[in-house]
Every structure is written in structure tokens, then in C-alpha cells.
Amino acid sequence: MTLEKSIFSKIIDRELPADIIYEDEKCIVIRDINPKARIHLLIIPKKQIATLFDLSPEDKDLMGHMMLLLPQLAESQGLDGFQTRIHTGESGGQEVFHIHIHLLGK
User: Fold this and answer.
1) Which residues contact 94 (CB under 8 A, 6 or more apart)?
2) How much is the average pLDDT of 62-69?
3) Where does motif Histidine triad motif map (predicted)?
4) Would you give the distance in Å from CA 17 to the centre of its chain?
5) Beta strands in the chain (DSSP E)
6) pTM of the predicted structure, to 2 decimals
């Protein structure tokens, strides 16, 4: 099954603008356009994976990379604590079907 190109893939491909905070070969980090906290970042893998249900064993390094990036991003934003959220599926509040981690801090 081929996924329709997500809004995040369009940001990664520079087809849509975004406030990019960080980028490497595996992921991109942007500011959320509808922030729920003073600091609200989205950590998005460059590989489009629809939901956590769609992860495969080959994605463990990618997901680990993103998790290890969270404290570095928080510190770079001056945070000494933060929350993370991953919405999964429509009933889990997921709006964009391209896995992403929300980093929120006061």
C-alpha cells in the first residue's frame, strides 16, 4: 500500500514552509503551528510511517534516534523538564497519519 504524501513529507521535501528547529538524515523537528505549550515541537521521521501500529522491527533504530533526541531538543529550548505525546490512530487523537512525537514544555 502506498501512502498519500503527508503534510509532514511535504515539509521535509520543502514543498510547504515550516519553522525548522533541527534536521538530520533521519528526522526533522519543527515548531507546531497550533502550540499547546510555550514550547511545542514536533519530531518527525523522514520515513513516512502512518501510525505506531505500522512500525516494523527495522524502525527500532529510527525510533530510538528520535527518543534520544528529545532531551537534547528540550535543553536547546531552555527546558529542564518536558512532556511527550504520540497520538496513534484516529480514536487516539492522531490528525496527521505520519508518526511524530510532540515535545511540550513550559
Assistant:
1) 51, 87, 88
2) 98
3) 98-102
4) 16
5) 20-23, 27-31, 39-45, 83-85, 101-105
6) 0.93
